[in-house]
C-alpha cells in the first residue's frame, strides 16, 4: 500500500458520512469549493499550488482489496458501503485556478462537482495537498520578492515534516521562483535543478581542512563549492586561495564558498576581500544557516557581497505561518445552493467564479467573486481541468508555472510586495452573490 495515494488517507468521518449517504441513496451532484477564510499574519497574498497532485490523486482514486478487507474487519462499515467502495472511481468535474495563480481570501481556487459520496470522500486529502503546497509556495515567494533576483536554493528536506513534505516543498518553492533544490528526488520526479556543496562532517573527517577541500575538489571538479566555516571562516578562505593554483593546474576551478554561521554579512565582506585579493574574483559566495525572508531582506539591504542563498527550515515548514485557514465546503447539492452560516465561518453559496480587474498600469486593482452565470470579464480565474474524471490537458510544465508566478508577482501592487501586513487587497462580493445568500437564508 502506498500511503500517499491510498483512499484511506482520510478522516474517519468522511467514510461514516459516505455510509450514511449510501444508505439513504444520496448520490446527486454535490459542489464543494476550496478557499481560504483569511490570510495568515504578515501575508498579503497567497500562491495557489498543489493542483497537480490533487488531479493525480483524483485520477487514481480507488480502494484495493487489502484496504476493503481491513475495513470489513473493523466492523465499522456496512456491506453496502463496502460494495459501493469496491468500484469507487472519481467521475466528477474539477475547475481550478492554474497553479501559480496569486489569490486572496474568500476566492475559491478549486471546485469539485461529483456525486455526493465521491466529493465528500476526497475532502481531507484534497485539503492536505492544497494547504501544504500553497503555504510553502506563498512563503517561498516572499523570499523571491526580497532577493532582488539573486538565486535561492531549497535546503529544507532534513527538517521537513516527513518525506512527502520535503519533496513537495522542493516543488512548491521551485514553482514560486527558487533556483533549485538540494533534494535529489525532486530532480528525478520534477526536473528541478539540483544544488549541493559539502557538510561540516566532511571537513571534520579529515585531519587537515586543506586536504578536505582538495579531496572534495578532486571528486567534484565541476562543482567546487567549499564550506568554509567549520573552524575559522577567514582562515579557511585563505586556505582556499592558497589551494586554488594547484587545483587550477589540474584544470579545476574553485566555483565558490559557502557561509553557514555567524554574522553572514560581516563574514561575506571579509571573505570577498580575501578571495578578490587572492586572485579568485570569480568565486561566488553562497550563504545558508537558518535564513528566512526577513534575514534575506536584511542581508540584501546591507549590501552584503553574497551571490546566492540557501533557505531551509523556515521555508519548508513555513515556520511563521505553518497552516492556512482553509476550507472545503458544500456550496450546492442536487441543484440546491447551500450556505454555512456558522458564526465567523459563514460561506457564500452556489458555484462561483473570480474575475480580476487591473489598473491602467497593469497592476491588480481588485477582484470580484460572483456567481457562475454572471459574466463580468473575459478571463475568469477558475478554468475547467477535469471532466467526468478525466484530465482535460496534460500537466503544465513547472517552467510554465514558474513564469506564471513571476508574471503575477510583477503585477502585484507595490504595497502588497512588502513583508509586513498592509491594508487588505480588495475582494468584492457581487450583488448577485449577496442576493443568492439572502435567498438561501430565507428558505433555510
Question: How would you characterize this protein structure?
Answer:
The protein is α/β, with parallel strands linked by helices and 444 residues long. The protein folds into 2 domains: 247 residues, nicotinate phosphoribosyltransferase (Alpha-Beta Barrel), CATH 3.20.140; 171 residues, Aldolase class I (TIM Barrel). The chain is built from 16 helices and 18 strands. The strands form 4 sheets. A 7-stranded antiparallel beta sheet has the order 13-12-1-5-3-16-17. Strands 7-6-11-10-9-8 form a 6-stranded parallel beta sheet. The two termini are 44 Å apart.
Itemize the secondary structure elements and their pairings.
Layout: H1 12-24, E1 29-36, E2 46-47, H2 51-59, H3 65-74, H4 79-86, E3 93-96, E4 102-103, E5 110-115, H5 116-121, H6 123-146, E6 152-154, H7 163-175, E7 180-181, H8 184-190, H9 200-204, H10 209-219, E8 225-227, H11 233-249, E9 256-259, H12 264-277, E10 284-287, H13 293-301, E11 308-311, H14 313-316, E12 326-333, E13 336-337, E14 352-358, E15 364-371, E16 383-387, E17 390-391, H15 398-411, E18 427-429, H16 431-443
Parallel strand pairs: 6-7, 6-11, 8-9, 9-10, 10-11, 15-18
Antiparallel strand pairs: 1-5, 1-12, 2-4, 3-5, 3-16, 12-13, 14-15, 16-17
Helix pairs in contact: 2-6, 3-4, 6-7, 6-13, 10-11, 11-12
Amino acid at each position: 500500500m502506498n500511503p500517499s495515494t491510498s483512499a484511506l488517507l482520510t478522516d474517519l468521518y468522511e467514510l461514516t458520512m459516505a455510509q450514511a449517504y449510501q444508505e439513504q441513496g444520496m448520490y446527486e451532484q454535490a459542489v464543494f469549493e476550496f478557499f481560504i477564510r483569511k490570510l495568515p499574519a504578515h501575508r498579503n497574498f497567497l500562491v495557489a499550488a498543489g493542483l497537480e497532485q490533487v488531479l493525480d490523486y483524483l485520477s487514481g482514486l480507488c480502494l484495493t482489496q487489502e484496504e476493503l478487507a481491513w475495513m470489513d474487519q473493523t466492523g465499522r462499515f456496512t456491506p453496502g458501503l463496502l460494495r459501493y467502495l469496491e468500484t469507487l472511481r472519481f467521475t466528477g468535474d474539477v475547475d481550478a485556478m492554474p497553479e501559480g495563480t496569486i489569490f486572496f481570501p474568500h476566492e475559491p481556487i478549486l471546485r469539485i462537482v461529483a456525486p455526493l459520496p465521491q466529493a465528500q470522500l476526497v475532502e481531507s486529502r484534497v485539503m492536505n495537498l492544497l494547504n501544504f503546497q500553497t503555504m510553502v509556495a506563498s512563503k517561498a515567494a516572499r523570499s523571491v520578492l526580497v532577493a532582488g533576483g539573486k538565486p535561492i536554493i531549497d535546503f529544507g528536506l532534513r527538517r521537513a515534516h516527513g518525506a512527502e513534505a520535503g519533496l513537495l516543498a522542493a516543488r512548491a518553492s521551485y514553482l514560486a521562483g527558487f533556483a533549485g533544490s538540494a533534494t535529489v528526488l525532486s530532480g528525478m520526479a520534477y526536473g528541478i535543478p539540483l544544488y549541493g556543496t559539502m557538510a561540516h562532517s566532511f571537513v571534520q573527517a579529515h585531519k587537515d581542512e586543506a586536504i578536505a577541500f582538495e579531496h572534495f575538489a578532486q571528486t567534484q571538479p565541476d562543482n567546487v563549492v567549499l564550506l568554509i566555516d567549520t573552524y575559522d571562516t577567514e582562515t579557511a578562505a585563505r586556505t582556499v586561495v592558497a589551494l586554488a593554483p594547484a587545483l587550477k593546474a589540474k584544470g579545476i576551478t574553485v566555483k565558490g564558498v559557502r557561509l553557514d554561521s555567524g554574522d553572514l554579512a560581516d563574514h561575506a565582506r571579509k571573505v570577498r576581500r580575501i578571495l578578490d585579493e587572492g586572485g579568485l574574483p570569480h568565486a561566488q559566495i553562497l550563504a545558508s544557516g537558518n535564513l528566512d525572508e526577513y534575514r534575506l531582506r536584511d542581508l540584501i539591504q546591507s549590501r552584503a557581497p553574497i551571490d546566492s542563498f540557501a533557505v531551509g527550515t523556515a521555508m519548508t515548514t513555513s515556520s511563521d505561518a505553518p497552516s492556512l485557514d482553509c476550507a472545503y465546503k458544500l456550496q450546492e447539492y442536487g441543484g440546491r445552493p447551500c450556505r454555512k452560516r456558522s458564526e465567523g465561518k459563514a460561506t457564500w453559496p452556489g458555484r462561483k467564479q473570480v474575475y480580476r480587474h487591473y489598473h491602467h498600469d497593469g497592476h491588480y486593482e481588485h477582484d470580484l467573486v460572483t456567481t457562475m452565470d454572471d459574466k463580468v470579464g473575459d478571463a475568469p480565474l477558475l478554468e475547467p481541468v477535469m471532466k467526468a474524471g478525466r484530465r482535460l490537458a496534460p500537466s503544465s510544465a513547472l517552467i510554465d508555472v514558474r513564469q506564471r508566478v513571476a508574471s503575477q508577482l510583477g503585477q502585484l501592487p507595490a504595497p502588497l510586495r512588502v513583508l509586513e501586513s498592509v491594508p487588505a487587497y480588495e475582494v468584492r462580493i457581487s450583488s448577485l452573490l449577496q442576493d443568492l445568500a439572502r435567498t438561501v437564508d430565507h428558505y433555510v
